[in-house]
Write a structure and sequence with these properties.
It is a single chain. By secondary structure, this protein is mainly β. It is built from 2 helices and 6 strands, in the order ββαββββα. Helix content is about 10%, strand content about 35%. It has a 6-stranded antiparallel sheet with strand order 1-2-3-4-5-6. A hairpin with a 4-residue loop joins β1 and β2.
Length: about 150
């Protein structure tokens, strides 16, 4: 993935996301996608300490989306890879974009999303209403064990 172009705002692709831990899943019925949300080590430690509002600088969330396939029994599964997007917390570097760096790559050939750096305005518009949870939609799945 060394030949994957950076996003128009300069954020580089992070191929290591595939090794991160799953923190949640989501589904969008409006565009028939299923998603897995992963977190880097800093994000995982923040979740374990329940210090995700705000998330610490250095936390990175990756959301991987696939087309949703539904079989004749109604069971859903992942189809074709659709995109991967990142939210990188750095309250100083990304102060002008809610404290988060946003980036997205689409398709199997990982084409950077956005004509120019202003693509982040769409990200901000969608995430802005979530100011009471540091602009993050994802609620980490609880481990189910008592610590």
């Amino acid at each position: 993935a060394h030949d994957v172009r950076p996003a128009p705002n300069g954020i580089g692709f992070i191929p290591e996301y595939k090794d991160w831990k799953v923190i949640s899943t989501s589904e969008r019925l409006d565009n028939d996608t299923v998603r897995v949300i992963l977190g880097n080590d800093r994000a995982i430690r923040a979740i374990e300490k329940n210090s995700i509002n705000p998330w610490p600088d250095g936390a990175i969330l990756a959301k991987v989306a696939w087309n949703r396939l539904t079989d004749e029994s109604g069971s859903g599964q992942t189809g074709q890879f659709r995109q991967v997007e990142f939210m990188i917390k750095d309250s100083r570097k990304f102060a002008s974009t809610l404290g988060w760096g946003f980036a997205r790559w689409r398709g199997a050939d990982l084409q950077p999303f956005g004509a120019d750096a202003n693509f982040v305005q769409g990200c901000i518009g969608c995430h802005y209403p979530l100011s009471d949870r540091d602009f993050v939609f994802t609620s980490p799945i609880k481990s189910g064990r008592e610590d």
